[in-house]
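ok trying this again, last paste got cut off
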Amino acid sequence: MEAKLMKVENSEAYIEITVDETAVEQGMNQAYKKIVKKLNVPGFRKGKAPRAILTAHYGKEIFYSDALEVIVPDAYEKALTQLDITPIAQPEFDFPEDDIIDKTFSFSARVPVKPEVTLGKIEEIDVTIPKLELLEGDIENALNDIQGRYALLAERAEDEPAEYNDKVNIDFEGFVNDEPFEGGKADGYTLVLGSNSFIPGFEDQLIGLRKGEKKDLEVYFPPKYHNQELADKKAVFKVTLNKIEHKQLRELNDEFAQEVSEFDTLEEMRADVREKAEQQLTARKREMIKSEVLKKAVDDCEMILPDAVVDERTKKMLQQLQQSMALQGITLEQYFEFSNSSEEEFYKNVWPEAELNVRTDFMLEKIAEEKGFEADDEELEKYVNDIAGEANIPADTAKEILASSTDNVRMSICINKAIDYLVENAVVTEEEIPSEEGALEPDVKTGETLVETEMKSSE
């Protein structure tokens, strides 16, 4: 096998590979062994016809496709080793016309390689973030949220109407043009009024109803409803209200603190809430600085990215979406149907984000390299222990899982150091910017503040 590096251009290495006669013969023979099992040749038992007979009957072209599957990957890997090339994405191969294989076989490959990165300004980058202050009202709101989470549910009296935030139990059946539709009926369905988990307008019309009352609710399915047969159509739901429950808040006192936390008094719990709120505020500010400083640093550096690298990142993002949907029992096909989208639109929409992420990664690697950042064994052990804690698995298990990717783990540590370097060397200005958000930002997934999440974890 002979390999030649023709040129490196725009972060792609162009190589020419020639496979010798021995390797070609091995590939053709393996292709024959695979194909002969599938063919019935007169005068021979299935799978027993000699290679020469198959060649005479069908021509040697019958072996080409399967032979290439054997020849090309092996020759490509050997060429990378010989030329000391490290690919960062899948190559693009160029074969002779009609994939003709003679005694020897030559083909070319365009291999995406790590781009040359020219850093711009990485120190004293000007960053402006909103000025966030922790107010006493934030602490009280956090305590009130905790109080609400541990509220007791009490059933309303029969003459009491349903209100927002009440938990109701209903029977319902939906009709479109006086005809029931699939999936439109349920008995004993539990719903929190104001949760917006039903069709727009449905929950609002239950406000004021009393236990045992019935009502016909008129609603319209959204134009982009996942079931296109119902989209933008008027529906009538016949509803019976079976039960209404509302929250009864418990008094914020020492007894409450002892039951829901590790503290003996309400003041101790309040002090802990304040401490966690301050930590959250500090972390939130850092994330703002990090986001802005990374954007500016990336904008100021130069590199040429092969499309193949960005393409692989978009595919990884699709895989992550698929895994996320699978946890909810939804396939990708269903997701795209519900969202009135497609895989092609997904790739198009996430391409800019994927490109930015890849550029950021290469920039951070370059900073780590220039600053001489390294990851020692102690830092590696801490990283593994942190991963184990987040995944709630033993440290030894995490160590075994990451054993085969130690180099990648060390690089992740170095990249984090590069991020720290940018953040610590940024010039930060905090401005008074009107905002509807409080200093305690709710968790996107749970709707809880991080303080509440911490309270849960300590129970």
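PB: full thing came through this time. The chain is about 45% helix and 20% strand.
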